[in-house]
Amino acid sequence: MKGRFGILFFLAAFFVLPVIAQQKTSSYVLVIHGGAGTILKKNMTPEKEAAYKSSLKKALETGYRILQSGGSSLDAVEATVRVLEDDSLFNAGKGAVFTHEGRNELDAAIMNGKTKAAGAVAGVTTVRNPVSAARAVMEKSEHVMMVGPGAEKFAREAGLEIVDPSYFRTETRWQDLQRAIREDSLASAKSNAYTNPGKLGIKNRDYKFGTVGAVALDQQGNLAAATSTGGMTNKKYGRIGDSPIIGAGTYANNETAAISCTGWGEFYIRNVVAYDLSALMEYKGLSVQQAGNAVIKKVGDMGGDGGLIALDKKGNMTMSFNTEGMYRGAVTKDGKIQIEIYK
Amino acid sequence: MKGRFGILFFLAAFFVLPVIAQQKTSSYVLVIHGGAGTILKKNMTPEKEAAYKSSLKKALETGYRILQSGGSSLDAVEATVRVLEDDSLFNAGKGAVFTHEGRNELDAAIMNGKTKAAGAVAGVTTVRNPVSAARAVMEKSEHVMMVGPGAEKFAREAGLEIVDPSYFRTETRWQDLQRAIREDSLASAKSNAYTNPGKLGIKNRDYKFGTVGAVALDQQGNLAAATSTGGMTNKKYGRIGDSPIIGAGTYANNETAAISCTGWGEFYIRNVVAYDLSALMEYKGLSVQQAGNAVIKKVGDMGGDGGLIALDKKGNMTMSFNTEGMYRGAVTKDGKIQIEIYK
Fold first, then answer.
1. Which of B214, B256, B252, B235 is nearest to B103 (CA)?
2. Distance from CA of A198 to the nearest CA of B (A)
3. What is the DSSP string of A19-55?
C-alpha cells in the first residue's frame, strides 16, 4: 500500500503541483480609459472630478470581479465598457455626443486575443450597449463589421436591449452640439476644404471627441480589448472614426497586447495605431510601454492627438497620451485600484 | 557673350541635368487585380478568358498613360479602378454583387503613400464610381471614412456622378444572389451561429466575393493604392469587408509599399493584412515579395483565402494569393504589359 501511495504522491506532484504553481503566478489585470483631451485641473470642480473618479472606479470593480472569479477577459471588457456606456459622463452609449443632424450614432468594437476573433458595429442608434452588439457580431455572425440599420436589425435579432434613440440624449451634449454648429460654421466660412494633409479643419475638438475602452488579462492568460464611442460632436455624412475599426482603435492578440485607443480618430485610422503597437512588439521586440509611446509619438508627429491603453500577456500595461489629460484607471496585479485624470 | 553662355551652360547643367538624371532613373509601375478565387482554366471558355484579359488590359493602359505623362500615382490608381468599376465583369461599381435585400452596396478606399492621407466610403448605392467618392472624402473632408446615406450625400455635394441604383444591376449577379439565397438557407439550417472561430459558415464563397484594386508608383517616386468592391453576394445586416478599411484591404506608405487586397474580407480585417505587409517591411526588413507571401500565409493558416497586390518605392511588386487564381496584371518598369489569371 505504501508503494501505491508513493506512486499517487508522485503523480499528484506531477499533475497537480504545476497547476497550482501556474495559478499562483498567473495575474489578472484590467485597464480602462474614458477619453483623452484638454482635461485641466484648473477647469475641473472637485465635484466633477469626484464624479468621474467614482464612475471609473465602478467600471473597474465590475470588470475586476469577473476576472477575480475566473471569468474571461472578454466578459470582463464587455461588462466594464457596458458600465461606462450606461454612464452619461462619457461619450459612449448614454451621454454620447450628437451628430450634425441631432442624432446619437454609436460605434463599438471588441476583440478576443486568444482567437483573434473580432466584432464591430458602427452608426447604430437604438442599441443600448453597442459593445454587446459588437460581441454578438463576433460570436453570432460570420462577419466582423456591420453598420447602420443592418447592424441594428442584427442586434435586435440577437436579443440585445433596444431603446428609443432619446435614451442616449443628455442636455450637456445637446448644448455641445449647438456650440459646435456655431463655431464650425464660422470655421468653415474661412476654409471648408481639406487641402493641407495633416492640418484638418476640425476646430475646438476638445469637447467633441471622447471614447471609452477596456483591456484585460484573465487567469487563463488570455487578452481582450473593447472600445465604444459616440464619435465626434457635429459629425456629418456618416463619419466613422477609429473605434470600430479593428487595427485602428481596437486590437488584441495574446502574443503581443490588447489595445484600446481614444483621440482624434482620423489620425488613428491613417496610422493603424492599435495594430502598429502590436507589430512593434512582435517585429521589433519593443515592450508594451515603448510601443505605446512610439505610436502616440507618430500620431503627434502627424498633427493628431489622443491616447491609448495597452496590456501585454505578462500584465505589463501602458496608458500613453499626448493630450493634457486622459480619464484612466487600472486594477493592477496586486489588486490595487489606480485612477488618474491629469498628466 | 561667350562668358555669358558659359554661365548659362553652367546653370543649365546645375538645374536641368539633375532633373533629366532623375527622370532617367525613375521608374513608374502599375499593378492591378480583379479578384481572387477558384478560377480554373477548365471552367473558363476562351471567349470569357479573352473578355477578362481585354478588360484588364484596358484598365492598365488607362492608368499607365497617366504615369507615362508624369501624372500622379493617385490619379493613376483612381482612373484605373474607375475603368474596372465601369466594367460589368468585376464585382465593383457596375456588375457588383447583390445584398440579401437585392441591393448593390459599394465600398471603396484610396490612400496616398506620400502624405498617408486616406479616404473611404462604405455602403453607398448611388455613386457611379465609389473610388472617386473615397478620394473626395480624402481631399474634401476632414474625415477618413463615411458610410451609408451620409456618404452618398457627401458624394453628391462633392459633385460626383450619381446614378439610379439600377445602373449597377447585371443579370449574372442577380442569378448569383438567387443561388446564394437557396444555398445559404440550406447551410444555415444546419448551423446558423458562428461558434468555432476561424470556421465561418460562409458556403460556396467562390462566386460571392470579388474586388478590384490598383497600386502605382509615379515618376516622382510616390506610391498610391485604391480598392473597390461590391462586397459579398447575399451579405446581410450592413456587413462591411476589408476593402474600405485602411490597414486591412488598402494601405500606402512611400517608405514601404502600396497594397490592395482581395479575398475573404473577415480574415483580412482580423489580420490587418495591408498594414501588416508594410510593418513586416519596415520593422523586419522583409522585401515586398517576402512580406506579401508572409501575410497571405497568415490568412491561410487562419482558414481564410484570397490575394493581394503590392508595390514598393523601387518598383518591385508582388501578386500573392492562395486561391486557384487571381485576375491580375501589371505594366512593369520596361513598359511591358503582363496579364495573368491562373496560378
1. B235
2. 8
3. HHHHHHH---EEEEEEEEE---GGG--HHHHHHHHHH
Residue of A193, A197, A275 lying closest to B112 (CA atoms): A197
Minimal C-alpha gap between A297 and chain B (Å): 16
- Beta-carbon contacts of B317 under 8 Å, excluding residues fewer than 6 positions away, are B29, B31, B215, B288, B309, B310, B311, B330, B332
Do residues B247 and A275 touch, judged by C-beta distance below 8 A? yes
Q: How far is CA A332 from CA A173, A181, A329, in A?
A: 33, 42, 9
Contact A60, A32 (CB under 8 A): yes
Q: How far is CA B38 from CA B41, B56, B64, B207, B319, in A?
A: 10, 18, 29, 8, 16
Query: Are A308 and A260 spatial neighbours (Cβ–Cβ below 8 Å)?
Result: yes
Residue with cell 478565387: B37
CB contact under 8 A, B270 and A246: yes
Contact assessment for residue A214 and residue A77, using Cβ atoms and an 8 Å cutoff: yes
Task: Indicate which of B112, B114, B143 best probes the interface with A, i.e. most A CBs within 10 Å of its own CB.
Answer: B143
Please check whether residue B240 is in contact with residue A265, taking contact to mean a CB–CB distance below 8 angstroms. Answer: no
pLDDT of res. A250: 98
Query: Where would I find the beta strands (DSSP E) of B38-161?
Result: 106-112, 117-124, 145-147
Q: State the Cα–Cα distance between residues B112 and B224, nearest whole angstrom.
A: 5
d(CA B63, CA B217) in angstroms, rounded, equals 11
Report the C-alpha gap between B233 and B223 in whole angstroms.
Answer: 31
A264-293 pLDDT tens trace: 999 999 999 999 999 999 999 999 999 999
Record: contact A143-B276, CB cut-off 8 A: no
Q: What is the mean pLDDT of chain A?
A: 88
Closest Cα of chain A to B233: distance in Å? 13
| Residue in chain B lying closest to A148 (CA) | B238
Sign, Cα dihedral of A322, A323, A325, A331: negative
- Catalytic residue, candidates B125, B126, B211, B229: B211
Transcribe B93-128 into DSSP letters. Answer: STTPPPBTTS---EEEEEEETTTTEEEEEEEESSBS
Tell me the whole-structure pTM to 2 decimals. Answer: 0.90
Q: Which residue has the cell 496586486?
A: A334
**pLDDT confidence of B242, banded at 50, 70, 90?**
very high
CA atoms within 13 A on the CB side of B133: 35
Answer yes or no: CATH 3.60.20.30 is held by domain B28-342: yes
A211 catalytic per annotation: yes
DSSP-assigned beta bridge partners for residue A62 = none
Query: Which residue is closest to A147 within chain B, CA to CA?
Result: B238
